[in-house]
Amino acid sequence: MERWIVEPLKSVNGIEFGTKREIVREKIKKDYKEFKKNKFSKNTTDDYGTFHMFYNEKNSLIAVEIFRDIEVVVKNEIVFPGSLDKIKTIIPFLEKDDGCYCCSIFSVGVTAPEGMIESIVFGEQGYYPKYIKGVEEKNKLLEYKNFLVKQNSDLEYCLKNPSYGIINRGDGKKYAAGDISRDMEYNNYIIQIIERQLKDEFNL
Question: Coil, strand or helix: which one is 124?
Answer without folding.
Answer: coil
